[in-house]
Design a protein that fits this description.
This protein is of the alpha/beta class and 229 residues long. Helices cover 26% and strands 19% of the residues. The protein has a seven-stranded mixed β-sheet with strand order 3-2-1-4-5-7-6. Strand 2, helix 4 and strand 3 form a beta-alpha-beta unit. Helix 1 runs parallel beside helix 7. It is globular, with a radius of gyration of 16 Å. It starts with a helix and ends in an 8-residue tail after the last strand.
């Protein structure tokens, strides 16, 4: 278990003054339309049961009661605790069949964020934004993270979880060429360059490191007095 090394990545992080990534960093082996790639529903977990339970446990420990939640890159399940009561839950995803089977969603929108990285919600609509094992696919991450900041209320929380499992032909180049510690830094940098969030925090949630799927979480809170436009 990487444990302390994961948390130290962002505690000790130093970022270049300007966005350090190039277009090539977000290129993919398969540049075909994502809506077509994900057209067939996949009603399966994309991390193993141990990682799923670790994620749900983390949500139980950190979600504020009766929150308005947006699940970005949502699917047929959001992994929220069964006994957690939200005020409202919305989802954005690529496959309507999957989204329609997610019983935690009060509403959903089918949107390809690679083509249109804009959320169909007003500014400061949500208390929490989640994204599960999908950040590695974003080709326009800065725009998506700015949208996360825009729709969050001041001091609202973003929870970005990821593993080392992915569809390698659809994951972006910079992700495939990085190790787990570097990936934590990358996600932290996405928050940093929005200038909309507090310093991000990283957690190693891996339940049985080296045996079952690793799981990492990077969180950040929306700064007060940020212009949401």
């Amino acid at each position: 278990m990487l444990g302390d090394r994961i948390s130290k990545v962002l505690k000790e992080a130093e970022y270049p003054k300007t966005w350090p990534y190039t277009a090539d960093d977000f290129s993919r082996l398969d540049e075909s339309n994502d809506s077509r790639f994900y057209s067939q529903p996949r009603l399966v977990y994309h991390i193993d049961d141990f990682a799923v339970r670790a994620l749900t446990k983390f949500y139980r420990q950190h979600f504020v009661p009766l929150a308005d939640i947006l699940d970005v890159c949502s699917s047929w399940v959001s992994h929220y605790p069964d006994d957690y009561k939200a005020r409202f839950v919305a989802g954005i995803g690529l496959n309507e069949v999957e989204l329609s089977k997610n019983n935690r969603l009060d509403e959903y929108h089918v949107i390809d964020l690679q083509e249109n990285p804009n959320f169909p919600y007003p500014s400061e609509r949500f208390d929490i934004v989640t994204m599960v094992v999908s950040v590695d696919y974003l080709t326009q991450p800065l725009q998506v993270f700015r949208e996360i900041g825009r729709v969050l209320r001041p001091k609202g929380m973003a929870y970005i979880s990821f593993s080392n499992r992915c569809f390698p032909t659809k994951a972006v180049s910079v992700w495939l060429s990085s190790n787990d510690l570097q990936r934590v830094y990358i996600v932290g940098s996405f928050f940093h360059y929005t200038a909309m969030f507090s310093a991000p925090t990283a957690y190693d949630l891996s339940p049985n490191w080296g045996i079952t799927d690793p799981l990492y979480m990077v969180t950040a809170s929306k700064l007060p007095n940020v212009n949401p436009t």
